[in-house]
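User: Hi! Is it possible to get a structure for several chains at once, not just one? Here's what I have:
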Amino acid sequence: MPSYVIRRILLLIPTVFFAISFLFFLFFTLPGDPANLIAGGFNRTPDPGVVQRAKERYDLDKPLPVQFVHYWERTLKWDLGESYKNRRSVNDILGEHAVNSLRLGIWAILIEVVVGIGVGLIAALRRYSLSDKITTVVTAGMSALPVFVLGFVLQYAFAVYPHKHAWPEWLTLRTQGLGPDSWAFFFIPTGEQWRYLILPAVTLASVSTALAARMMRGSMLEVLRADYMRTARAKGLDERSIIVKHGLRNALIPVVTLIGIDFGTVIGVAVLTETVFSWPGLGSEIASSVTSRDLPVLLGLTLTVVLAYAIINLLVDLSYAFFDPRIRLGEGGEK
Amino acid sequence: MPKRDRSIVARLLALLAVLAFVAAACGGSSDKNSDASGGTKDTTASDKTGGEIVDLGTFQGDPPEHIDPGLNSTLDAYQVINELYDGLTDIDASDPANPKIKPLVAESYKSNADATVWTFKIRKDAVFSNGEAVLPSSFQRAWERASNKDFAGDYSYLFNFLKGGKEKLDGTATTISGINADDATRTLTVTLAKPYSNFDAVAGFQIFFPMPKAVEALKDQKDWENQLMIGNGPYKLAAPRTSEQIELVRNDKWGGDVLGNKTAILDKVTFKVSKDVDTAYNAFEAGEGDTANIPPGRVDEAKQNYGTTLDVNILGSYHYDVNQNDPSIGGAKNLKLRQAFSLALNRDEINKAVYDSSRTVSTGVTPPGIPGFKKDLCDYCKYDPTQAKKLVAEWKAAGNKQSGPIKIQINADNGHEPVVAIFVDNLKAVGIDAVVDPRPTETYFSSLAKGACVVCRAGWFADYPTYDNFMYDLFHKDAIGGNNYSQFDNAQFNSLVDEAKQTVDKDKQAQLFQQAEKVLLDDVGVIPLLWYRGDYVYNNKKFTNFEQTNFGLILWDQIKLK
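Assistant: Yes, the chains can be modeled jointly so their relative placement is included. Here is the combined structure:
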């Protein structure tokens, strides 16, 4: 097991190197000369002197391989460079946005875990009941609803409408950005903060929660039919421990995989939710760095997301062994 | 000066805005905002200072790239910078039809007879918010900093106006030779590279704002805007800017403005960054802020329920350049075709259908509010399909025919598609075959500068209120390869503009510029379409005196609580 973990961690190095290098070269195939755009070329023809100075400032006058080597020299020292757009240090930008993404992501995943697994489980245990049917219909609807539609409707229903109808302030949720108050234990909102968090967290969690619920239901139904469940019942175990110890634990494996992948997704690519709620996270920052051709921000933030994905995947793989003791990681193939 | 285009998501959400609007309409008559009388001024407003405004209308999409006056090039961030800094001169736009340049941090200024040497006398009481005196050397410090090769921002080319500015920008000189700052006599003498009679207007532009001594202590100048920047304007930063907001508080050491105001009224102005124009409007409606930008399709609703600045003419033009070298439409032989093109366009319909009539139909390129402006300079800007048909027939009779449809270029996905769709219909009606040619935004302007324009979408917001900012920067032969996408090179036009730039007498100067613009318009080097108007909506139950100047700047320091 430890050697498995070490091997997986070592594998991270080429993964990250190739992903980021690929992105580096891909960037230069995008239309538009970066120096021209830095100098204001999105809206007018910039002064040639200004373009030249931008090239010199950002190494863009050097051949691409030289820029590439310089980039990795800096990156290995964890100096992610300076944003072309606002000249801020990418390390600072990353620090601010990663924290926000992580907080929102944690809440989205908590909703997914509690609501998704809970609803899916109940639906499976009460198969064909009214609540099961409602779950099926609602989750199908939710997973098909575009995030920005849901976000927009929620904003209207829980912020604009209550405000216009003079509901008490604490019942009116917020639609934009972060609240003024701090966070306890890194991710628990205090004071006003929760009013800012609820709508983006629910919106971000919506699709994945619906999918998790559907998967949980399907997986649990399959497990309920398994021979070992019948055996457990025959042994006279009480229903509760049959469901929890034998059923749930087995049924959770595919759901955990899904949630693990989702965690990477909600942190790195929650572009639409972050845009609709002006949540200053990584996803929208990466998206805007592409459109504004801000290479250092694009690479620096993507590097972090790639790392986060890889680490979360590793944790998910490790968790299989916990859920199913038959899985022994890193002990060779079939005999 | 460019105003940022809104994001793609913004346009997706525009659709949803309509949905939300329907929902709002179904919301019932108990809507407590719908009984507001909208836009009327409250005469009982108190003159007391105090209060706070939260703005959601200025920054949509991304936070401002720069709030350092030496680096910024957008109108959005100028809203903040203009509250943080005061320049040598400012524009008194209290009569919008006739804005005047007045001394601000300078108590007086004058130029020599040929407008090559400008002398500014700095006010004795001018101080930065930290108490440091604003001296001629404060300006010199700022200008040397902003023209530094390693720092220089998008507008640094303006230092080419100054003697020795070019050398400084190139890096071949370490200082600008044309600046002489004498702190003892509080005199700043500026020698220009060429005569320029409108330098007093340019000298009030952001890149020429003064800088305190504190900038010299910085290891890296780029850090200035990310810390507690010190300025001399009506407000000062309450905290370093973040990606989410910029907070300003009143600067009690402010010296007043050109209108005679001596103090900023509100205690605090907070600019919040929204990622999207539609959701920012939602937030405004939910009471999270006091102002917003009016999203497309919600103009009437905004006018009905709140106060707006829709009646303010902004010094900006939305027009289409016509490439004079293009065989399909340029040159003397195609003059009648160009004139017919311009006459065929139904500008009123475009304004109504695409912009909810929130803009003004142009009668020239240079907008009202620019000193020297004259109405109706354009003979071919009215809608006259009959005359257009006649001109097309005459053009054909002279042996010409279209070898293919005329290409009309736009930067794709920035909201220009419906405008050109109307163009194509209008042109078809008079017998001209045209087609839209959408191009990626990233390479749009650079390709136009290289001559790719046939008939191409362009627009311009005045950097400073001068006629030459439209004529020289957009249509003079010196701007070919730059912003002269028409490749317009007309000897009569060039010499009129050159002469006007050096003419000190303002009336004579205005006449020369008008003559030049007439030459441009008669030759259809450009097809004027619309002039911009204000696009802010604000909570008029809470605030009064919410004024937008025709530069697009809100006078944040003069807004009052009701």
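The CA atoms of residues 83 and 296 of chain A lie 6 Å apart. Chain A touches chain B through 62 residues (CB under 8 Å).

User: Great, thank you!
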